[in-house]
Specification:
mainly alpha, Na+/H+ antiporter like fold, transmembrane, ion transport, transport, Cation/H_exchanger_TM, Cation:proton antiporter
Length: 403
């Protein structure tokens, strides 16, 4: 890759990212999320249509964008939610989904529709929590009681499949994969104690004085933490998104200095540049030719995402959420993309996944991002229930008393 070629690709990708908010704004009546515009823009400039940019030129930036997506998901997660009924129900819902996914994938394998049993089964249990966050925030769907259910559901649908990837699809084998996963958790936990080791008043003063100056001490430390955990995860043979997710969880507990300001800066760096690059890159990598030759495969996976991952929410959240919010939960939890990209790449690299299925699985994820959140937003707009800040959390969403 020459410097000129790389800069040309970066310019085209940046142009798509810059125009995306304006296009989404013009389509405001249709409630089209920016993520959809970014993916469509990537398809447009990619090799399958105009061929204006080479995805390989921005692969590193796209991977960092994926890392930022999961960093923000981990940062947004409130661990206290898992002490509430919504958190416990989210875990139960995921395991119910996992059982259904195994059964469905077994039938598909018996019919010869799929060869890669584990990647496909895991793919049907995923939720694109990081992808949904900006959509939920932009549409004020994280206020009121709904957040007590949608945040844990999204986090579980992103984290537990990552754990499954680490254990069942690790290049080191299942046992070493589990050991690596535990080691990764220990590393992340150890990093939460770093601030306690820095007891020097002079060190603390420098960090505090520099966080809003040109030094940007806390932001630089945060980026270093992200890159370090991404590297550690990669060396352990784990998917890098696990390192990014844990980095976000660590930051939530660690977060020195002005936490509010740090979050604003992370939004600026992540959503301002790296995350849009990832979504545009995802669109550029979509194999339209393979999908056009086997469109029914994409439709099968698209429907299965809704039936396997989303549909159980209608029953499992009965009595906890009103029907409109249960439908919103169904469509939101069925939204998947980043992990489907990772699972497809793993399946192709091992030779177990058919190229047609890899393209269809990723295509179904792209289509889910394009359709499902928009439906959920429309339901929220018409019902008005999830977006009402005055709607208090139900009594059963409060943390249980100790003992």
């Amino acid at each position: 890759m020459s410097l000129e070629t790389g800069l040309r690709t970066l310019l085209v990708v940046s142009l798509v990212a810059t125009l995306a908010p304006f296009v989404a704004g013009l389509l405001h009546a249709a409630k089209v999320p920016q993520v959809v515009v970014l993916i469509l823009g990537g398809i447009l400039i990619g090799p399958e249509v105009l061929d204006l940019a080479d995805r390989a030129d921005i692969s590193l930036l796209a991977n960092i964008g994926l890392g930022f997506l999961f960093l923000m998901a981990g940062y947004e997660l409130e661990l206290e939610l898992f002490r509430e009924r919504g958190g416990r129900r989210a875990v139960v819902a995921w395991f119910v989904t996992a059982v259904i996914a195994v059964a469905v994938t077994g039938v598909l394998a018996a019919l010869g529709f799929v060869h890669a049993f584990v990647p496909v089964a895991l793919g049907l249990t995923t939720t694109a929590f990081g992808t949904l966050l900006p959509i939920l925030r932009d549409n004020d769907m994280l206020s009121g009681s709904f957040r007590h259910y949608v945040l844990p559901a999204g986090a579980v649908g992103e984290f537990l499949p990552i754990v499954g990837i680490a254990i069942f699809l690790s290049a080191n084998g299942k046992v070493l994969g589990l050991v690596s996963l535990l080691a990764m958790g220990v590393v992340a936990l150890a990093l939460t104690y770093v601030p306690r080791l820095a007891r020097s008043k002079r060190f603390a003063t420098i960090a505090r004085e520099g966080e809003h100056a040109t030094s940007q001490t806390t932001l630089r430390f945060t980026l270093t933490l992200l890159f370090a955990l991404l590297l550690v995860a990669s060396n352990f043979g784990l998917d890098v998104v696990l390192g990014a997710f844990l980095a976000g969880v660590v930051l939530k507990r660690w977060a020195p200095g002005d936490v509010h300001s740090l979050e604003t800066k992370l939004d600026a760096v992540g959503y301002g540049f790296f995350i849009p690059v990832f979504f545009v890159s995802s669109g550029m990598g979509l194999d339209l030719r393979s999908i056009a030759e086997n469109p029914w495969r994409l439709l099968v996976f698209f429907v299965l995402l809704l039936l396997v991952r989303g549909l159980p929410a209608l029953a499992l959240y009965r009595g906890l959420l009103p029907l409109p919010q249960r439908f919103q939960m169904m469509f939101l939890t069925a939204t998947a993309l980043p992990l489907l990209v990772a699972l497809s790449e793993i399946g192709l690299s091992t030779g177990h996944m058919l190229p047609a299925n890899a393209a269809a699985l990723v295509g179904a994820g792209v289509l889910s991002v394009m359709v499902f959140p928009g439906v959920a937003v429309a339901l929220n707009r018409y019902s008005g229930s999830a977006s009402d800040p005055a709607n208090p959390a139900p009594a059963d969403a409060e943390p249980e008393a100790a003992g």
